Automatic annotation (TrEMBL):
This is UDP-N-acetylmuramoyl-tripeptide--D-alanyl-D-alanine ligase. GO terms for molecular function: ATP binding; UDP-N-acetylmuramoyl-tripeptide-D-alanyl-D-alanine ligase activity; UDP-N-acetylmuramoylalanyl-D-glutamyl-2,6-diaminopimelate-D-alanyl-D-alanine ligase activity. Residues 336-455 form the Mur ligase C-terminal domain. The gene is murF. Pfam families: Mur_ligase, Mur_ligase_C, Mur_ligase_M.
């Protein structure tokens, strides 16, 4: 494998000073996932990365990007010394972007940016060398890290850009310099920091400020805040493409069929009829897939290949991934199905996930309960501001809940939903995921389909782990 960074090029990019010559095949910020040959970047977060430089070098790091020589590091250790490590990482990212001829797509949105990024990776990777972050690296260190890891011979790159506070997206977009920028949707997430949906829309729309000349702005055309997105695209001098389900959308989804294992959609890519699928149930996946089709068109890709590759996309873990859990090592019919969507939650994404659960096929007559059930474990949705209690209670009015048998609630905010649920659907309420996990073996049975959904800080991955531990020979409890 050729070098991603040499000591000389990295020094030119950052203005730093090398203590030795080195070459790196990758870039890492975490010794737990560092691979031999990586450049270790000693960022300061909850812990100071300088405290882990010696460990990184012992694990085979090619060098370390530091602002000082750490204690316990040999005098001849390969170091790239810069005034500020975060600034050094950003400089590497800008240099990597400048040296590459890659066509770049940037993605943001209140819901769906990571899954859309992964759809783009799938589609672009079918028509060239594609680069994207392995995880949701979308913040002030995630975006430059994604760029710094981009090989010089990349054909296409996908950069996910997120935000928690005003003023975060535009600088990251200017760093990425996308040729195409997508806003998947604007929804009430991070309302505590922005105060209104319009405020969120203005921040999301600022992704267009980083567009290259003659760039393309792709935006959701079905929103109350669509005019804000359109105005920002026009200010950037971008070609504007709207997508969605409304009659006025340039790329329009005209019909969606949610199946147990896939979603099939018909639509119009401007004047061309398209039929496509994604290998996961969910209306939101089908709609966001239309933005990917629009991006493929803007980049001049082969549409038939793009649609075929789109049909092979699966969501990553924690984002709607489905898994069959065998409950008995002998009787292979005794299974339940897990929908792992425990990474993030806001009102729009919870509604979308419940719609997926409502469409799922349960299995009757195989468990101790006579019929299979659709069961949801929902955790608190964070950063919704002063209306957070009402937003949680309002989930009880979602049409998809009519097809859900039991809803268990986790967290103080989800207590409002618990109180608002019809008694027949009201499951347990627990303050924490740990408390909820203790009783899950009594909640579930063979034939059930189970959704786990909540904001990441609620730690509902613990519930996912508890369900997985029921696999293979665990007793299925009496109902």
């Amino acid at each position: 494998m050729s070098a991603l960074w040499t000591s000389g090029e990295a020094a030119v990019a950052t203005g730093g000073r090398n203590t030795a010559e080195w070459s790196a095949r990758g870039v890492s910020i975490d010794t737990r996932t560092l691979k031999p040959g990586d450049l270790f970047v000693a960022l300061k977060a909850a812990r100071d990365g300088h405290d882990f430089v010696a460990q990184a070098l012992e694990k085979g790091a090619a060098a370390a990007l530091v602002s000082r020589v750490p204690e316990g590091v040999a005098p001849d250790a390969p170091l790239l010394i810069v005034p500020d490590v975060q600034g050094g990482l950003e400089a590497l990212g800008r240099h990597a972007r400048a040296r590459s001829p890659a066509r770049v797509v940037a993605v943001t949105g209140s819901v769906g940016k990571t899954s859309t990024k992964e759809m783009l990776r799938q589609v672009l990777g079918g028509q060239g060398r594609a680069h994207a972050a392995e995880a949701s690296y979308n913040n002030h260190w995630g975006v430059p890290l994604t760029l710094a890891r981009m090989p010089a011979d990349t054909d296409f790159a996908v950069v996910e850009i997120g935000m928690n506070h005003p003023g975060e997206i535009a600088p990251l977009s200017r760093m990425a310099r996308p040729h195409v920028a997508i806003v998947t949707t604007v929804a009430p997430a991070h309302l505590a920091a922005f105060g209104s949906l319009d405020g969120i829309a203005h921040e999301k729309a600022s992704i267009y400020e980083g567009l290259e000349p003659d760039g393309t702005a792709i935006l959701n055309g079905d929103l109350a805040t669509t005019p804000i997105l359109e105005a920002a695209a026009d200010r950037a001098g971008a070609r504007r493409i709207s997508f969605g389900e409304g009659a006025g959308c340039h790329h329009r989804v005209t019909a969606i069929r949610i199946c147990d294992r896939a979603t099939v959609a018909h639509g119009r890519a401007w004047r061309t009829q398209v039929l496509y699928k994604v290998a996961v149930p969910g209306r939101h996946f089908a709609v966001n897939a239309m933005s990917v089709i629009a991006a493929a068109g803007a980049l001049g890709l082969d549409r038939a290949l793009a649609l075929a590759d789109l049909g092979r996309w699966h969501p990553p873990a924690g984002r709607g991934q489905r898994e069959v859990i065998p409950l008995d090592a002998v009787d292979t019919h005794l299974t339940l199905e897990l929908i792992d969507d425990a990474y993030n939650a806001n009102p729009a994404s919870v509604a979308a996930s419940l719609e997926v659960l409502a469409a799922a096929e349960v299995t009757h007559g195989i468990g101790r309960v006579a019929r299979g059930r659709r069961i949801a474990y929902l955790g608190d949705m964070g950063e919704l501001g002063s209306g957070e209690a009402a937003a949680h209670a309002a989930l009880a009015e979602l049409p998809a809940l009519g097809a859900v048998d039991v809803v268990h609630c986790v967290g103080p905010l989800m207590a409002h939903l618990h109180d608002a649920l019809p008694p027949a659907r009201r499951g347990r309420w627990c303050a924490t995921g740990a408390e909820m996990a203790e009783g899950m073996h009594r909640d579930l049975d063979a034939g059930d389909v189970v959704l786990v959904k909540g904001s990441n800080y609620m730690g509902l991955a613990r519930l996912v782990d508890a369900i997985r531990k029921m696999r293979q020979g665990a007793e299925v409890p009496e109902a």
